[in-house]
């Protein structure tokens, strides 16, 4: 292996180790469900909640632990706090798809925010702007963990924003069980707690047979939204973190008092975030040498996908690669599709997924974000908080046992 290949491989998330893709299968296994492996040593339970906090990277807890004392109490102990890798790119679509399916991006196929649908010859969005011509079940054919858990006898509940009930992303990677929706953070936690207490009587009393296990997915996106708008160093973001900490503590305390060790509440996240100053938000579309022979651009501002026209010669592709190295090589890891796949950035890559990955990838590690304004319009340039690349700030996320039960 060459020095460059080793450098690129060192950036790959640990898909076979401490990775977010193992959280939901491990949670199902901790409930005693057949067909699942607990790769993370989660505490056994009969009521398990996976609390997904969009945008809460491990570094952000470290930086703001004084504003999240309940979460930090679990984070500080090796018995109840661990660090996982998110997916590549470190973005919501890729990581939540890994969480929901137990697969790396190279298998589930959500390899970015905007990615190429080759048969349509256009870039399609993997979040709120999902293309109606893209069937979620065909785009992502692996059975979601929630659906598998339901088939194995668990009661499965998702608590999230109402607008996500029938979203294409939900259909693709989080389908299964019942959906309960609430718009506001406090209402979401109350709804989740009420659903659990309604499912199971309190500890004690007559009961016949083993109780039906319950697996809940609870989604919180307030930190991510606030971070994009104001930045993770802002007072607004800190207040959002304090609200999350308060609601999580109330939720766990209420349920732990009622159910004791029947309950396990696990917190994780899909990516971290860092602030990019206005002068660091750059439009690369104005530089002709960077787009010569490029038919489509995709990805996100810190993990750009470039798709060449099929007629672009090897010489043109090489020249564009060199142009990107010259312009951004000191602030980004720049790799061809083959290099990134061989390095394991996306885990094992299925043949159907490979064309969705850019011919050339630009993973930023400097204090910049790269936009193709001609495609996206100018509005995204206002975003302060950013994520997507392979830096530790963006990739490293927490796994916390909020009920205080130790990992094995």
TrEMBL record:
InterPro entries per the UniProt record, alphabetical: Alkaline_phosphatase_core_sf (IPR017850), Phosphodiest/P_Trfase (IPR002591)
Pfam families named among the record's database cross-references: Phosphodiest (PF01663)
Domain of life: Bacteria
PANTHER family: BIS(5'-ADENOSYL)-TRIPHOSPHATASE, ECTONUCLEOTIDE PYROPHOSPHATASE/PHOSPHODIESTERASE
Name of the protein described by the UniProt record: Alkaline phosphatase family protein
């Amino acid at each position: 292996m060459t020095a460059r290949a080793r450098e690129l491989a060192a950036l790959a998330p640990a898909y076979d180790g401490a990775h977010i893709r193992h959280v939901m299968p491990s949670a199902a296994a901790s409930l005693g469900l057949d067909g699942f492996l607990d790769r993370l040593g989660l505490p056994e339970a009969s009521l398990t909640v996976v609390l997904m906090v969009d945008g809460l990277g491990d570094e952000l807890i470290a930086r703001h632990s004084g504003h999240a004392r309940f979460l930090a109490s679990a984070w500080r102990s090796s018995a109840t706090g661990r660090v996982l890798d998110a997916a590549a790119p470190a973005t919501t679509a890729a990581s939540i798809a890994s969480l929901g399916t137990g697969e790396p991006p190279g298998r589930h196929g959500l390899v970015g925010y905007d990615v190429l649908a080759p048969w349509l010859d256009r870039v399609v969005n993997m979040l709120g702007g999902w293309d109606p011509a893209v069937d979620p079940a065909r785009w992502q054919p692996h059975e979601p963990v929630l659906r598998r858990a339901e088939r194995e006898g668990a009661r499965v509940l998702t608590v999230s924003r109402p607008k996500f009930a029938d979203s294409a992303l939900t259909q693709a990677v989080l389908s299964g069980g019942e959906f309960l929706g609430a718009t506001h953070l406090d209402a979401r936690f109350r709804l989740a707690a009420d659903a659990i207490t309604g499912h199971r009587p309190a500890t004690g009393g007559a009961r016949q047979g083993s109780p039906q296990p319950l697996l809940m997915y609870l989604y919180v996106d307030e930190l991510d939204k606030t971070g994009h708008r104001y930045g993770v160093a802002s007072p607004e973001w800190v207040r959002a973190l304090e609200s999350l900490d308060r609601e999580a503590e109330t939720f766990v305390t209420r349920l732990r008092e009622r159910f004791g060790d029947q309950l396990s509440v696990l917190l994780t996240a899909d990516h971290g975030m860092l602030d990019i100053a206005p002068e660091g938000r750059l439009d690369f579309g104005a530089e002709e040498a960077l787009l010569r022979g490029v038919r489509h651009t995709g990805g996100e501002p810190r993990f750009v996908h470039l798709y060449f026209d099929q007629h672009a010669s090897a010489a043109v592709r090489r020249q564009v690669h060199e142009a990107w190295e010259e312009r951004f090589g000191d602030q980004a890891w720049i790799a061809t599709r083959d290099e990134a796949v061989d390095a394991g950035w996306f885990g094992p890559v299925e043949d159907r997924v490979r064309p969705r990955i850019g011919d050339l990838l630009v993973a930023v590690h400097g204090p910049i974000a790269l936009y193709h304004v001609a495609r996206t319009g100018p509005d995204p340039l206002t975003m302060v908080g950013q994520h997507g690349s392979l830096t530790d700030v963006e990739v490293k996320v927490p796994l916390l046992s909020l009920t205080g039960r130790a990992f094995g």
